[in-house]
Design a protein that fits this description.
Elements: E1 2-6, H1 15-23, E2 27-31, H2 35-45, E3 56-57, H3 63-75, H4 78-95, E4 99-103, H5 107-115, E5 119-123, H6 128-132, H7 136-148, E6 151-154, H8 157-165, E7 173-175, H9 183-187, H10 191-200, E8 208-212, H11 223-236, E9 240-245, H12 252-265, E10 273-276, H13 282-291, E11 294-297, H14 306-313, E12 317-321, H15 324-330, E13 335-337, H16 342-353, H17 357-373, H18 376-393
Helix pairs in contact: 3-4, 4-5, 5-7, 10-13, 11-16
Length: 394
């Protein structure tokens, strides 16, 4: 079977599936619909060993065409869309895929479907906030996708329920969890790796450490509210530290404003807030997670981020935005907060500090069982079987 994966996304979304589909005997290409996708791929992996340039399809535009398409997208200009469709069609036709798998749904999914008549499968990751945040102009592209795609795969039932309400045909949908492709690698991280991180940052084993890795992606990502909440926590427990990691997707502008905010308003806490502004390799990243006591995610929209699963495997307690997919998956295994409310974050932080060892062990063991229930390789085979059935029926 010949498969195109449209779009490059981080974590568990694209690379592991590319590798696994090939292992299962499929011919696979990765379609990057614009130069930004290509640059993000290179930026994260420096062209990872499982990819060559021949594996990647990128529509080619001269500088004028690229500008024209970008402006046309903003202005909803028909000729720009047609140019994008024509270039994409030429690219896809040369490979002749049996199926195109869309990791996330967006404007480029519409372009891709218009460009080539084959089976198209959508994998929407985002929660309802993602759809609601789209302007009216873009919503019509979503309606087109919901109507014309052949099938949809959802990682959690709660996402399937939402998308059914906004227009996806329930008969076209299945629920299939991802699983963690590198579970053994994550489990290989030892407490000694965390101790090394603590020593480097001059933290003792008795210090209580919160870590947050996703709030710097946007200005309203919750980082400022987190600082306010942390200032209150320090009135109750004096040996608390907060690690904020910029990560790959964090923005320098947001980080700069956060530093200024801390310096202006919470100068006395500067020795208790550790900001990691460089990109760490994966093992060092995991070592920082295992060094922490509590993992915090303040995203307002998410499917079920891999970083949460990593934190679970490495026995962190969880403080998460109150999203339905989190509650569905983790039940009472996390403390849920309103990311816009410093008091909500503070109350959750306080609860994690007051957990007994017995309560901590009970929560982490239950969550670990949930993570390990989803076997990545088994689920990849189920996806291929699902795709094969679609191809046979076409």
């Amino acid at each position: 079977m010949r498969i195109i994966i449209k779009g490059y996304h981080y974590g568990e979304n694209t690379p592991p599936h590319f590798i696994q589909y090939r292992k299962l005997g499929c011919e696979v290409k990765l379609l990057c619909m614009n130069k930004y996708s290509w640059k993000s791929l290179i930026r994260e992996h420096e062209l990872p060993p499982f990819l060559t340039k021949d594996d990647i399809l990128i529509p080619e535009f001269n500088k004028f065409q690229e500008l024209f398409i970008r402006l046309s997208k903003k202005a909803n200009f028909y000729l720009g869309r047609m140019l994008h469709i024509q270039k994409t069609k030429k690219l896809i036709t040369a490979f002749r895929p049996d199926i195109v798998v869309h990791h996330s749904l967006n404007y480029h999914s519409y372009i891709c479907h218009k460009a080539y008549n084959t089976i198209h499968v959508g994998i929407p990751y985002s929660s309802d906030g993602y759809i609601r945040s789209k302007n009216t102009k873009n919503l019509r592209f979503y309606k087109y996708i919901f109507k014309n795609f052949d099938a949809f795969i959802f990682v959690l039932p709660v996402l399937k329920d939402f998308y059914t309400k906004v227009g996806v045909d329930n008969k076209k949908s299945i629920v299939l969890r991802m699983g963690i492709s590198n579970l053994s690698e994550i489990k290989s991280i030892q407490q000694s790796d965390g101790l090394r991180v603590r020593i480097t940052n001059k933290l003792s084993q008795s210090d209580f450490v919160f870590i947050e890795t996703r709030s710097l992606r946007q200005i309203d990502g919750g980082a400022f509210q987190l600082i306010e909440a942390f200032s209150e926590i320090n009135k109750y427990k004096t040996n608390c530290y907060l690690v904020i990691m910029k990560g790959l997707l964090g923005k320098d502008g947001v980080l700069s404003k956060l530093r200024q905010f801390i310096y202006t308003n919470y100068n006395k806490l500067m020795d208790r807030i550790i900001i990691i502004d460089k990109e760490l390799n994966y093992i060092d990243y995991l070592a920082h997670i295992v060094a922490a006591d509590v993992y915090i995610s303040l995203l307002k929209n998410d499917q079920f981020g891999k970083s949460i699963s990593e934190a679970i495997i490495l026995n962190n307690q969880l403080i998460l935005s109150d999203l339905p997919q989190y509650r569905h998956a983790l039940k009472d295994g996390a403390f849920y907060i309103n990311p816009e409310s410093p008091n909500s974050i503070f109350q959750a932080m306080l609860k994690t500090i007051n957990l007994t060892n017995e309560e901590k062990n009970d929560r982490t063991s239950r969550l670990n069982r949930w993570v390990e229930e989803a076997d990545f390789e088994s689920n990849a085979r189920k996806r291929i079987a699902f795709y094969s059935n679609l191809v046979k029926k076409a």
